[in-house]
Each structure stands twice: as C-alpha cells, then as structure tokens.
Give the backbone structure.
Amino acid sequence: MTTVHSRQEALLMAHLLRRAGFGATPYEMDRALSMGYQAVLDDLLNPDHPDVIPDDLIRRYHVDQSDLRSGGGAHWVYRLVMTDTPLREKICLFWHRVFATGTTKLIQNRVVTNQIDMFREHGMGRFDDLLVELSRDPAMIMWLDNQDNHGSNINENYGREILELFSMGVGNYSEDDIKETARAFTGWRVVNPDYMSIRMRNNTARPYGYMSWQFEYDDDDHDDGEKIILGQKGKWNGEDAVRIICEQDATARFVARHLYHFFVADELPVPQWPHEEPRDPEAIDVLCKSYFENNHDIGAMLRTLFESDFFKDAGSRYARIKSPSEMVIGTMRLAGPIDLPSEETYMADAACANMGQALMRPPSVEGWQGGTEWINTGAYVERVNFAGRILNDSDKQGVRDIIDRIKALSDRQTITSDELVDNCLEVLGPLEVLDTTRHGLKNYASKFGDLKWSDQSLSSEFDRAAVAIIQLVVSSQEYQTI
Amino acid sequence: MTTTTFGLKYVTNVGFAADFGGRGFQLPSSMAIRADGVIFVVSRGKSSTKNSNGIQMVTKNHDFLGQIGTYGAGLGGMMWPTSVVLDSDENLYLADEYFNKVTKYDREGNPLTEWGTKGSGNGQFNQPSGLLIQDQLIYLVDSRNNRIQMYSLDGDFQGQWGSEGDGEGEFNIPWGISDDSEGNIYVADWRNDRIQKFDSNGNYISAIGEGDTSVLDRPSDVAVDPDGNIYVTDWGSQRLLVLDQSGSILETKRGEADLNPWSMEYLSSQDDERKARESFIPVYKADTEDPSEVSARMEPYFWDPVAVELDQDGTVYVLETGRHRFQIFERI
C-alpha cells in the first residue's frame, strides 16, 4: 500500500533532516516519511548501533591519516558523508565549533580526531560529563596550555576559556572565578608534558614520527587548597568546578543559545551575546527549562528543540546559511557513496577550507561565528563550483537516482522543461524556492524544450539536461540556506 | 624428546622520520634485502612532501646509501608504492597502487620498463599490494581484484588464481606474499584475518587463522624461515607473530625500539628536545585498548607494521609505516 503524505509533512521532514543531518537523499526521504516525524527523531537522537566506518581500510589506503600529521579533515569527511547516524555527526560539528581546537597550534591531527571521537560519545549526554571529558582531553589541554597550569604557579588560560567560551559567556563570572577555576584544574596534564610541549613548539616529527597524547592527573602538582568558585567554597578539583559551572543559569542560557544558533536560526555572533537579547527569548527559556528538568542532558534539549513550535514553524526553514561543511557534505551525500581509496575526501576537505571552514583548523579558540560570515563573493563562487563539480556525473549512484526519480514523477515518457524544473526541486528536497528563482530556472530550462527518454539517444540527452538543471539548482541562493 | 624453544631478541632499528627526503624514510611500505646487505626501503611519502617518495638504500649498520626513483608519473616514478622485490640478477621491481603498474629497475637503479593498467582483465591490476619472485616468475597480489597474478620478469602475463570470498583460495583484499624453502606460497589474506598457503601453481594447501577465533587480526605480510616457522606482521594487533605450521604461536613481539645512531645524532643538535627527553617515559599504561592508538603513543612499539623480511642469516626485519623505521631481531 502506498501511503500519501501531505506536502506539509514532506516539507517539515525535509527541514528536520537538513537541520539534524545533512539533508536527505530521495531514498532517505522516502524512508523517513514512511516512519513519521517522531520515529525519525527518536532514531536520530538514539541511534541503536555504533557508526560503522571501515577504519582499517582508511588506515591502509590513506596512511597519512594513520600517521598524525595530516588528513584529519579528510578522515572526518569520509565519516560525515557515509554515516547513517547524521545527528551524532552534526553534534560533533556543533561542539567542534563551540570548543574550537585546531591543528594550527597542535600540529598533529590525530589528537583532534580523538577529540571529535569524544564528542561522538559524549556530545548528546550530560553537559557535566562532556565538560569533564573536555577538560581531560589531551588536545584541549595542549591547545590551552593546561600542561603549564601548576599548583605552585597557575596558568589561567583554560580557567578563563571554560567560563567565557565553553559554558557561561562573558559577564557571568569574575576575574577571581577565573583564577580559582584555574587552580581547580592544576595537575591536569598529558603524559610526558615537557617533551610533548617542546616537540609541539618545534613542530617536529623527529626522530620517529608524532606521538599521540594521553591525559594524566598529577596529584602532586594539584593545588588542593580551599577555593571559591562562583560563590561556592571548598577544596575543589576540576570535576567540582564543572559541577558548579553546570548548575548556573548562565550556563543553561549559553548552551541553549548555541543550540538555537546552530539548529534553529542564525543568531548574532557570540561576542555580541552579552549585549544583545536572543533572537527568540521564549525559545531560549524553553530550552533552559529543558536543561534543568533533564539533568543537564543535551540530548533532551535537542528533543525539546526539534519538537518545539519554534523549530517546526515555517519561518525557521531556510533561516540559516549553510556552513561550508553542511554545504559540502550534503552535496556529496546527494551524489552517492565514496569509494576507498579516494581523493574525493581530500578535495572535499579542501573545499570546506576554501569556503571558510577548515575542519580541525578553526581560525581561533572562538571558532567560527557562522551566519553571514560564511558568504562572500569568493566563498560563493567556491560553493557553486564545488556543487556543480560533484553533481556533474549522471553515472554517480546518487545523481542517477535523482534523475530516475525526476522521470518517475512523470506518468509519460516525456516531460516539459517546466516540469523538469519542478520535478527536480521536488526530488532535491523538496526544496522551497522563491518564485523568481523558479522562474529563472524555468527560463534557462526552456532551451531544452520537451524532453523524452524513449530511446538511448534521447535518454542521454535527458540526462544531460537534468544534470544541468541539478547543477543550477544547487547554485541557487536557496540551496545555500538550510 | 628435545623441545626447541623459539625466541627473538631485539637488536637495533634503522630509520628516521625524513619529512623532506634525505636520510631516513617517510611512511615506508615495503623492503627488500640484497645478498650484499643493501636494504631497499620504499617510502610511500605523503602528498604534501612529494620529495619523500622513493626507494631508500641503507644497511642494517645505519649506512645511508642514497635513493632510487622519485615522485611522479614518468618511467621510474611512483606515487603510492606498495611493494619492492629483487630478482636473482638483483634487478628491482616496484608495485604502485596509484598508477596500477610495476616498474623494473636495473641493479644500479635505472628504470628499465614498466607495465600494468587499471582493470580486472589479464595483465591488468586494481591496486597491486605485494610482489614475490620465484624462479623466473613474478607473483603479484592484485588486492582489489582479490587474486594472485603471475608474470614473466618482463611483464608478460602467465596466469592467475583467486576470487573474492572467504573460502579456500578466495581472498578479501589480500596484502603481502612470500614463499618457503619448498616453493610454497603464503598470502596475507588481510580482511579474512588469515594466511593462506598454496603450492607454486596456486593450488590451495592450508590456512592459518580461520574464522572468528582467528589469532590473526588483519595480517599485512608474511615470511617463512627454513624451519617452516611463519612470521606475520599482524597489522591489526600491531604485533609481530611467529607461528608454527599448525598455527600455534611461538613468539609475540610488540616492538621495543630505542634511539638509533641517526636519532641520537639529531637529538645531539637539538638541545631543548634532548633535555626534555631526559624525563621522557617511552612506555606507560595506556588508557585505551585500541592497538593503533596505543602504538601512536608509545614510541618503542610497532606502529602499523607492514612488512616482515628475513635475511640469509635468519635475522628478522619488521618495517613500520607509522614510525618510519624497521626494527631488527635475531633468534635467541
């Protein structure tokens, strides 16, 4: 029995799959509609299987990704394109943006890849657990110099950033809180801190290649004296500092605003948050309530968000500009699976960088601001060229499926150029576009006239026309939004 | 009855992370040992440092003798080299899985000829990963076509066997290849976690490491000594295993490299690194059970062991991609 779904259902499902994933292929859209919104959301939030990635194949054929120096972005791209647990990957991208850690300073890729693995495991769990893991994360320790944070001589860097950038935001703590938090994290370091620091500083792989780092707690180097953090007095260690931080209203609001910014609609850049009200204060209140009612659980906040009216509202659709990674990964998923070994993952990683989002190489500890920052003339040209290049081959599995479905929407062996455009927009989303965009596409498509596929020659001609329209659609302004 | 206990002891290692060419290796993938003691190590290199591609010539006494071949598509060039082997005239053969070709060099390192194109037909390859020369035949592991092909020393196709699968004589992305003193051929059937043994015509004889309880985990290469002991670089578990013909483990090595003369020379010129290294703990308790990650943290351990070779004295050489070196062991 064929179930007929309303257009509103389809539009809402496409919205969910764009935000909680990287958009849907036509096959994924069919499957999702047959499951229904709630079941799809359950599946996204609670994938019942580990993400399967042929790590052995990647390591054998892309040996630079097994080594530590390079290829981290390409390694992640493979997983992003091939994953069947897209929200788990999306939340990794989310935390990578908030807890921005980069190989620019760390030199090696593997430790950042390990950090992303940690986001994959803890990214939808309790925020407290995530912050403890982040504080133990070797890449973060070296990124923010906590190996230099000694009981006898503190380094405030991590103490400052965990409050300012990772949990509460400017204006919600004092300079004393920074110092006291830093004291709580004294002794949190990596094994062999001196040698690893010097190798990192010297950017050397000698004598025998890079070495991955491991967390180590040195009790002898920890300041176990009394501290006052955010008004609470005690002989606090790092875990206590995290507990105190996570109890704060400001933390709930900070996390809520980040989630809204990433999953609902573009907010102002983070540095302006202390001075400007959220775009939708009521939505932030709803998410804060969810934070406290669910024991600081990020997954529960995401459920609240995706079930909310403010998310489902038609005004939220296309209210965000796609990040480069969303643009690149979504387009590659449309084109179909990647073979190994492949240069495609390296090209995709480079394309993200050229569009302004070098994975694992954020511009600073503040990460990427997003929104309009993503679009400038050069980045737009890169987007259009990339999407056109990826979808230019009608033999690619994903492109083939799109073309076949465009045909299948016609009950005849022929189609008008207007229908070609309408069908293409339907299959590629459904993608909602402005009337002017649709008119422009149809105007361009008119040069193809009526199209048929009744024999091989006509079918090839149809394929070429369809690919041209697909490429034009992914060049549109609407495709740049999500 | 007398029981002989098998054992190996670490002797030294040769290698250095040569980022920009010169003395050392960069992500080495294969090695071959000439009768005069010259060791040929092929560096796969990386795309960002193209001049690290090549076949470096060294000895086990840490002499660096130069390099054959460079990055590139022309005759003698390479991009993703996977295997190097010598014939009885000491010509050198190199397989490249990017170009899907085999290049033949003379004893002086001059490229003589090359053959191969991508495909699955006779004389075509899809990512050749291992080479063996026996008599006047080259056995080539055609990894993604899951078969072994045979060629004359000038590249004329002579035959093939194998197909995809996990049955007898079938393969799942095989990798290295070797033979024993009786001419039997051993193939590291990588994704089937086993070593398969064939006669020289490709007739199946036996296998080590079958099924879910296999003692092997993604074996990358194999060598067999005159006593029939089988040496396996078990890439997945990051170990060297020595097994008897029944598959019982005789010896396990995780790697124990120390600073070799090239490394000590480097550190002697890097005062800050040398001083910091005085408090360096090379092996400690890891908080992960992932063998690859453990290898990435512990400098003395094998990291991605991809080749095992024996010289005429029975000395064992284990080449590690991740640590840009090979470790040398001798029988106790």
